[in-house]
Amino acid sequence: MSEKTLSHLQTVTESLESGATMQIRYLLNGALPAQDVARLLESSPPKERKLLWELIDSKNEGEVLQYLSEDIGVQFMKEMDTERLVAVSEHFESDDLADLLQHLPETVVKEVLSSMTAQDRTRVEALLSYSEDSAGGLMNTDTITIRPNITVDIVFRYLRRHSSLPDMTDNLLVVSRSDRLLGTLTLTKLLVSDPEDTVRDIMDTDCTVINADTPASEVAQLFEKMDLVSAPVIDGDSKKLLGRITIDDVVDVIRDEAEHSMLSMAGLDDDEDTFSPILKTTKRRAVWLGINLITAFIASYVIGLFQNTLDQVVALAILMPIVASMGGIAGSQVLTLVIRGIALNQIGSTNAKWLLNRELIVGMINGLLWASVIAALTAIWFDNIKIAYIIAGATIINLLFAATTGTLLPIFLKKIGIDPALAGSVILTTVTDVVGFLSFLGLATIFLV
């Protein structure tokens, strides 16, 4: 959050406490841009958020809603009647409106659609037929299309009839009479062309085109690779133009994927609202705490198998967490790297073996290095060279297992359709804990008892 937003938030909080609602109403309905109002709502606890929303004039609700996160925006829209929903929907681009409608009851969606003009309804219904995580769900149907047989002069006259062009318009889409995409004509090329040239002569037929069923993550990678501002979306079978995707939507995808990866590794929902209610937050986190409890019992069970060994050599209980901790950190480093590689489509069957060998070698080198340090410190601390050798051996074993698990686990999870970011860290922690305890206490049982 910017310093400016923090300052506004403090002003609003102080005004709420003093009851100066007129000042808050002034801030929310003109003094602040809609983007800042949305940030204020997202940065407020539920009770204050509801009060602030009630102070926003109905004519400004739609503009603020389009900048709110999807989770919070849907909460407010669910509390609106159909008439208000219809009014606020006028402020949304068709793709953003379709994303929100997917989270509302079907009866409400039908009423909102029936209140729209035939053209707007057709556009939104087309978007609703696609998953919000696909190119079809990302695209906007508001496009400028032209025919290939007209001249540049006619194109200029056609554009002048528009009061404004759609946002992020960097090219015009050339289509046939059946709306089949033929190519694109960039605005820069249009400006420098002879007025008598035809569109067919100057258009680009080798343009980047996206199939409507393409996953959103692949769309983001394509925009990054090709440095695109916008790209046409077509139906894969008929090649018919459906709409276009713009860079602002792709930025949202990249941000959402980054948040998803970060929160999933902590077992949190990527729609998690920082200020969501207590019960809602508790339910979301309880599941992963339960899963973690199960894995903790598994590790404790392994320790219990060596109770007699621990009773005889107390030093083992003191040193035991070191082995598990080293394996956990090493495994997390590899896991994060591989998950990133998978997200960027850099890892496949052709290079997975090389990556595994690299990580095993790195694990062995680090294992030898830090096993020597741990062994030396252990020998000095407990004056027992056998325990020093045992913890060194266990550290090397666990780091090698961590490298193997960290490399292969996300690849395997991805193959069977499970999100590696969501489940990888939990499984990895269990493996490194179990292997760490098993190797350390197992070696101690063999050589000490």
UniProtKB/TrEMBL annotation:
Residues of the CBS domain: 139-202, 203-262
GO molecular function term, any single one: magnesium ion transmembrane transporter activity
Membrane topology type: Multi-pass membrane protein
PROSITE patterns for this protein: CBS
Swiss-Prot/TrEMBL keywords: CBS domain, Cell membrane, Magnesium, Membrane, Metal-binding, Transmembrane, Transmembrane helix, Transport
CDD domains: CBS_pair_Mg_transporter
GO CC entries: plasma membrane
Bilayer-spanning residue ranges: 286-307, 313-339, 360-381, 387-413, 425-448
Source taxon at top rank: Bacteria
The keyword Cell membrane is annotated on this UniProt entry: yes
Subcellular compartments: Cell membrane; Membrane
Function, as annotated: Acts as a magnesium transporter.
NCBIfam families: mgtE
Family (UniProt): Belongs to the SLC41A transporter family.
SUBUNIT field: Homodimer.
Protein name as catalogued: Magnesium transporter MgtE
Organism from which the protein derives: Marinomonas aquiplantarum
